[in-house]
Write a sequence for this structure.
């Protein structure tokens, strides 16, 4: 994407592979088939026209946005560790989550139901049980 003058980043994972006669550390994309691109909304057509690009990732009907801080965190993590695994986050009923944004930020909740983009959670607070439908991107699982 550098030919198109687009700011892009593909996190590369250093993985040890075995051939019949030797071991070698090779770099592979951490997120298969994904490249992060910083662009203005009016440049999205330019991104789609890059050879090999099939489509953008969408969230709620709009191109997905990854914050700069999240990209920097990925870069630092990849510089520090080798042979990293990217495991999709699963949110299931009866699991515990922490709310990341909004009025209830940093509160722990129990998942009641999982819908396509939203999760219904139970928040026990002030002696009441509050039930809210929260965007999945605002939740992280509790280990």
């Amino acid at each position: 994407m550098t030919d198109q003058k687009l700011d892009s980043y593909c996190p590369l994972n250093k993985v040890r592979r075995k051939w019949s006669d030797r071991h070698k550390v090779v770099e592979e994309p951490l997120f298969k088939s994904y490249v992060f691109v910083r662009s203005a909304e009016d440049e999205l057509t330019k991104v789609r026209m890059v050879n090999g690009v099939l489509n953008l990732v969408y969230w709620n009907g709009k191109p997905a946005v990854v914050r700069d801080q999240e990209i920097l965190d990925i870069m630092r993590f990849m510089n520090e560790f080798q042979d990293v695994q990217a495991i999709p986050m699963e949110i299931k009923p009866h699991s515990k989550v922490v709310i990341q944004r909004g009025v209830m930020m940093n509160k722990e909740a129990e998942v009641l139901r999982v819908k396509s983009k939203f999760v219904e959670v139970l928040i026990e607070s002030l002696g009441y049980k509050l039930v809210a439908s929260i965007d999945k991107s605002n939740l992280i699982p509790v280990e």
Summary: The domain at 96-141 is CATH 2.30.30 (SH3 type barrels.). The radius of gyration is 19 Å. The chain has two domains: 7-80, 96-141.
